[in-house]
Amino acid sequence: MEFRKANKNDLHSIVRLLADDELGSKRERFEEPLPEAYYEAFNAIETQVGNQIILAVENQKVIGCLQLTIIPGLARQGMKRAQIEGVRVDRNYRGKRIGEKLFEEAILIAKSEKCGMVQLTTDKQRSDAHRFYEKLGFTASHEGMKLIL
Fold first, then answer.
1. The pTM is what?
2. Rg for the chain, CA atoms, rounded
3. Nearest Cα to 8, choosing from 38, 29, 48?
4. Tens digit of pLDDT for each residue in 26-38?
5. pLDDT by residue (tens digit) across 70-128?
6. Does residue 71 contact residue 119 with C-beta atoms inside 8 Å?
7. Cβ atoms within 10 Å, residue 7
8. Which one-letter DSSP state was computed for residue 92?
9. C-beta separation of 93 from 64 below 8 A
10. CA neighbor of 64 nearest in space, from 134, 10, 118
């Protein structure tokens, strides 16, 4: 298995992963052709400094992904943070430490960017994900809130 930064040719595989669970199947539109909104979003991610999608690839197949965004800030004495979102592992590869290794890769990048913290939000319905994140050392220190526009 290798890790690499996603490119536009990976978009179909990424959306497939995002849509392949109970919540994602309601939120995403994995269809052929992919809706243009995915290409526009990927272009925005690709052009924004400090924003990337990291892939886990085995035998040229995308088996996992996450989005990593480096966020400069003034709070905490100007500390940079790394935000992780959109974490998915192909259902056929779960239980093989792919997610753990993806996080290790993301944390290495965050450290190389001199981030003082890695943060994420997770849907309250994802109890398996909560256990996974806690096992990696994340703590539920804050209550997340969203305003859908």
1. 0.93
2. 15
3. 38
4. 899 999 999 999 9
5. 999 999 999 999 999 999 999 999 999 999 999 999 999 999 999 999 999 888 888 88
6. no
7. 11
8. G
9. yes
10. 10
CA distance 143 to 121: 9
What DSSP line would sit under 36-56, residue for residue? Answer: HHHHHHHHHHHHSTTEEEEEE
Q: Which amino acid is at 117?
A: M
- On whether the CB atoms of residues 69 and 121 are closer than 8 A, the answer is no
Say if CB 117 and CB 82 are below 8 A apart.
Answer: yes
Whether 82 and 115 have beta carbons less than 8 Å apart is answered as yes
Q: Give the C-alpha separation, 130 to 124, whole Å.
A: 8
Q: What's the rounded Cα separation, in Å, for the pair 33 and 107? A: 34
Residue with tokens 């892939």: 55
Q: What is the DSSP string of 4-34?
A: EE--GGGHHHHHHHHHSSTTHHHH----SSP
